[in-house]
Amino acid sequence: MTDLVERIERNRFAGREFILWLWFESETFETNLRPSGGSPIALWIETRMTLTLEKDESVLKSAAPAASPEAKEALRQGKLPKEAKFRLSNGEHEFAFLFKGDTLGMSSVSVPAELKDKGDEVYEVFYERARLLEELEAIIEALYNDFLTLRLSDGWNKEIVPFLKRFANEKRADDGAYLQVKKRLLSKKSKR
Amino acid sequence: MGAIRGPVTYSRFFVAGEVPDDISAASLKKIRANAFRDLVPDEDENSRHGWASMTDSMDVDLDHEKVFFNEYVNLTLRIDTWVVPKPLLTAHLRTAEATLLEKKGLERLGKKAKAELKLTVLRKLRRQLVPSTKSVDLSWNTRTHVVRFFSQSPRIHLLVQELFEKTFNLRLVPESPGTAAERWGLDERTEKIWDNLEPTVLAEVEGAE
Q: B100 is in which domain, residue-wise?
């Protein structure tokens, strides 16, 4: 049991770093992300983001909180995003959700469901919702897998963190150079 | 709420253990045994929980059709609680205490008598009230072993984990960065890195470049 609790509790900060990486990728690639093994998607932060360092919290609420100078300032103070409201577009399907780094939990998920509880067969309503949530979860999982491959690679501190520091300092990342590094590090996972 | 209607806010769990091939045959009896039972005013319990139908949380007569949706096991965790407003309890208690003192010709009641009186008043008031009901959907995809539970309250998580284990004899492991890393497939090298992972620091250190 202790082993299980330890597995659950260990490195919760990795979820916050995952949000940071999604934010960095979204800004670097102008919202156009390509999770390994999946189709291209568009992902961006909208309306709400909370950054924390221990008990010190910055809650940013605006149309584009990630673009505000306060967001990068919080990063430079050592804060990491604890949660962020994302919008994700996957072809014709558009989702919005508040994503929590510590639990990888999702709140207030808006799914592009067409069927409604009233008037439609309850089973059909359930299957449609379940299918859409599974579609969203598969994308998040693919992105998390890419993040982990980078995070646990030898190149994270030496090659990726310098890009993140430039990003925190409001300097535009060289997307071509970053993409090269990312592709090289990701290819090592597939060769494992 | 959540799997069929209402806001979609949920936590993911993963089922640990071997899932029987015929989950309905293996578990329907135990699901029924752990179905919600109504609170009784004269019993001591202040709160009670159990399984109910996802399509109607008042329906606790669970059968195959209400629970098994192809590869999904769908249930609602129903939690009923007696909520007696404190001012109401205080007022009724005061009246009951005065009546009892007068009847027994006493000036004050002892600790034990006070506690007994409170329980009597509480039971009387419960008979006039309806318990507060909360229902939270649970949807288990038996093919992927993923359980979606439509609440993020740690207190309710504990209730559902305990009831799920009691019903299915399988453990629910909550999603977290750590459990997701394990599913990603840590090998010997990455497990060592994961175990010794230090947070990334982007803060500017004074004196650094």
A: 86-128
CB distance B176–A9 less than 8 Å? Answer: yes
Residue B188 lies in a domain: yes
Residue spans of the domains in chain A: they are: 2-185
A81 touches chain B (CB under 8 A): no
Q: How far is CA A188 from CA A155, A192, B117, B119, B183, in A?
A: 11, 6, 72, 67, 18
**In this complex, how many residue pairs, one in chain A and one in chain B, have their CB atoms less than 8 Å apart?**
130
Give the pTM. Answer: 0.89
Is residue A138 less than 8 Å (CB to CB) from chain B? no
Are residues B119 and B21 part of one domain?
A: no
Both B137 and B46 in one domain: the answer is yes
A184 touches chain B (CB under 8 A): no
Residue A48 in tokens = 């709400």
Q: pLDDT truncated to tens, each residue of chain A (192 aa)?
A: 557 777 788 899 999 999 999 999 999 999 999 999 889 999 999 999 999 998 899 999 999 999 999 999 999 999 999 999 999 999 999 999 999 999 999 999 998 877 766 656 888 889 999 999 999 999 999 999 999 999 999 999 999 999 999 999 988 778 899 999 999 999 976 555
Smallest Cβ–Cβ distance between A8 and the set B141, B178, B203 belongs to B178
- Domain tally, chain B: 2
Residue A4 contacts B, CB cutoff 8 Å: yes
Of A127, A96, A120, the C-alpha closest to B141 is A127
Whether residue B189 sits in one domain with residue B93: no
